[in-house]
Write a structure and sequence with these properties.
single chain; alpha/beta; Rossmann fold; 3 domains; four-stranded parallel β-sheet; 14 helices; 12 strands; about 45% helix; globular; binds 1,3-dihydroxyacetonephosphate; binds iron/sulfur cluster
């Protein structure tokens, strides 16, 4: 796209944002151009908090479906728009309410912690939500020893490693983007850059997490870079994070653990889609009232931990 066309689109978006009292929330895995119009860019926890607190009339969610759905649950009176309706999350779709009920039936009485990367109906069937930023604290906050964790077995295994006194039973879901990162790729890069700090997202395979100097959510990784005295980092998470780190810390060196760590669903949204979404107010996300009310309890419990 020619730079003048891009500036024109950005100007139109900014005008419409004021006119319609809209706010644009973007996940760090989005195309970096979205940052030019976003009011907030962050990880799932930060985005949930923003969605709960904003006084805008319209929320445009530059992210995937479950994020827009979560925003709608938190702000039922606001119009929540997802510019590209096909932006799903493969992990969230790995469990539905019926499968969760069957899972719970195998372990009567055990509470369910549900990763926010899940559908509204799965949140409604769960006791409390978590994100990758607060999963350990959320599980630790529960008095029970035995806990069911859905849908991400990667994050669940990481939480279990941090809380040896808990018995965490994980569902079999996973994030294909993070699971594509192989430990050999990190070992190879570490041999080339022995001084580099290895920063890993907890959705990764345990063998990758075991190579980490630091494990944390998207925002956790960004914060670690800010605070660390190291000048070279091997980053094991989605490519969007490294692009933002390169932009914000040009004096430091960042090496992407795997070129395959790209979430295709996060990349559908372009500036043109945001503009169209604001112009036409599409695609509006709705959640069944009874499901939304139950899911809100799980999300609110998390936000109060
Ligand atoms: P966080 O935003 O919690 O780091 O999760 C990463 C992710 O996969 C979002 O879909
Ligand atoms: Fe879902 Fe993984 Fe993509 Fe996040 S990175 S939206 S968990 S598939």
């Amino acid at each position: 796209m020619a730079i003048t066309d891009k500036i024109d689109i950005i100007n139109k978006i900014n005008r419409l944002k004021i006119e319609k009292k809209a706010v644009i929330l973007a996940h760090c895995y989005q195309n970096i151009e979205i940052d030019e119009v976003a009011d907030f860019v962050g990880d799932s926890l930060g985005l949930s908090r923003q969605a709960a607190e904003t006084d805008a009339t319209i929320i445009v969610f530059a992210g995937v479906y479950f994020m827009a759905e979560t925003a709608k649950i938190l702000s039922p009176d606001k119009k929540v728009l997802l510019p590209r309706l096909e932006s799903g999350c493969l992990m969230a779709d790995m469990i539905n309410a019926e499968e969760l009920r069957a899972f719970k039936a195998q372990y009567p009485g055990a509470p369910v912690v549900c990763y926010v990367n899940s559908t509204a109906e799965v949140k409604a069937e769960s006791d409390i939500c978590c994100t990758s930023a607060n999963a350990v604290q959320v599980v630790e906050s529960l008095p029970d020893k035995r806990i069911l964790f859905v849908p991400d077995r990667g994050l669940g295994a990481y939480v279990a490693s941090q809380l040896p006194d808990k018995e965490i039973i994980c569902f079999s879901g996973y994030c294909p983007t993070h699971m594509r990162i192989r430990p050999e790729e990190i070992i190879e890069k570490k041999e080339k850059f022995p001084e580099a700090e290895v920063l890993v997202h907890p959705e990764c395979h345990t063998a990758v997490i075991n190579l980490a100097d630091f494990t944390g959510s998207t925002t956790g990784i960004i914060k670690r870079v800010k605070e660390s005295s190291a000048d070279t980092f091997i980053i094991a998470t989605e490519k969007g994070v490294i692009e933002r780190l390169q932009r914000d810390y040009p004096e430091k060196m960042f090496i992407l653990a795997s070129e395959k760590a790209i979430c295709e669903n996060m990349k559908w949204t372009r500036l043109e889609d945001i503009l169209l979404s604001l112009e036409t107010e599409q695609f509006e996300i709705s959640v069944d009232k009874a499901i939304a009310e139950k899911a809100l309890i799980s999300i609110d419990r998390m936000l109060n931990v």
